[in-house]
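Deliverable D2.4 — example input (structure tokens):
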């Protein structure tokens, strides 16, 4: 891949990638196969390991290293993980020589300090300017500014371009844009707002190497931006009132206009699916994976508002190539070429 010269941002040198495109650390979905495909195609990969057993984390890291020599990060979520498990997760990563960690949701300075003390670098995703300041003050080397258009868990209510502009003006560290980006035009817009790159989830969920269930991938490929909803009904396993963006389904339609304000303590614990012997509850944050069986339609089908740009399920390298090529074409048009 030979990207447009203006796509070679300082982020590429910082992360050791060829193009300023990061794979989001989607829990369950961003496993070694997808991470390796994105890394080998020139992007920057993250393993999504939220609440995963340390043994699985170790096997995923080893499999990824066997498939690529490119650098990568491991994503865990301190505020959504039992402290003892989080301690073992981070210890496993450090023991295996992981040099980049990515965190999300609440900023936990002690966790950031722990990995920095071991020589590792922290990428922190944030949804507000205040959280960006907290993460930078705690030692984050890079910030991912997530707009409300994002799929999956959403930690703010500001649009991506506005948030990126605010954070990029205030931060002394590089800023990456996240939320509703699934095209080359979106990449160029993010760069114009002050980002040094983009952080993509939905665009890579709907690829052949993704560990998402084929049903989820197909729903993404068929959906448009108006088909996504912002709700906190899928909250079990996460802090109370944690909002997500999902494709509308029978669960969200049954809520009518009451899409937010749900108390997890008042939600029933009703198994509706199975993931390798683990029961999946209605209203949990689990999305359907390759190994999931049951009522997939009622599960959290995460997708951002950029979903309208996604109409097929190609290899991840092809998805990345198209986005970079389109971004180059947009830049050429802007330069009058």
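Example output (designed residues):
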């Amino acid at each position: 891949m030979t990207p447009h010269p203006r796509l070679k941002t300082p982020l590429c040198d910082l992360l050791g990638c060829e193009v300023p495109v990061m794979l989001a650390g989607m829990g369950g979905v961003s496993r070694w196969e997808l991470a390796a495909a994105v890394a080998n195609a020139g992007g920057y990969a993250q393993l999504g390991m939220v609440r995963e057993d340390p043994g699985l984390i170790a096997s995923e890291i080893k499999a990824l290293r066997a498939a690529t020599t490119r650098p990568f990060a491991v994503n865990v979520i301190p505020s959504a993980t039992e402290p003892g498990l989080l301690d073992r997760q981070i210890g496993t990563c450090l023991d295996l020589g992981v040099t980049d960690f990515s965190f999300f949701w609440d900023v936990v300075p002690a966790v950031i300090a722990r990995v920095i003390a071991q020589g590792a670098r922290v990428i922190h995703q944030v949804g507000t300017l205040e959280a960006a300041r907290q993460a930078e003050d705690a030692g984050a080397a890079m910030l991912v500014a997530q707009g409300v258009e994002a799929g999956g868990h959403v930690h703010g209510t500001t649009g991506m371009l506005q948030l990126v502009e605010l954070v990029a003006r205030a931060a002394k560290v590089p800023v990456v844009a996240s939320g509703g980006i699934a095209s080359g035009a979106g990449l160029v817009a993010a760069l114009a707002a002050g980002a040094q790159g983009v952080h993509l989830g939905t665009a890579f969920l709907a690829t052949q190497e993704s560990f998402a269930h084929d049903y989820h991938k197909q729903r993404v490929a068929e959906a448009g931006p108006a088909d996504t909803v912002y709700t906190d009904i899928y909250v079990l396993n996460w802090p109370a009132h944690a909002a997500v963006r999902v494709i509308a389904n029978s669960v969200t339609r049954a809520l009518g206009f009451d899409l937010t304000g749900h108390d997890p303590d008042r939600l029933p614990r009703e198994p509706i699916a199975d993931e390798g012997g683990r029961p999946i509850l209605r209203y949990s944050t689990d999305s359907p994976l390759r190994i999931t069986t049951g009522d997939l339609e009622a599960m959290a089908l995460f997708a951002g508002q950029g979903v309208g740009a996604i109409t097929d399920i190609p290899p991840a390298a092809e998805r990345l190539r198209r986005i970079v090529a389109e971004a180059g074409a947009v830049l050429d048009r802007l330069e009058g070429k």
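The chain has a mean pLDDT of 96.
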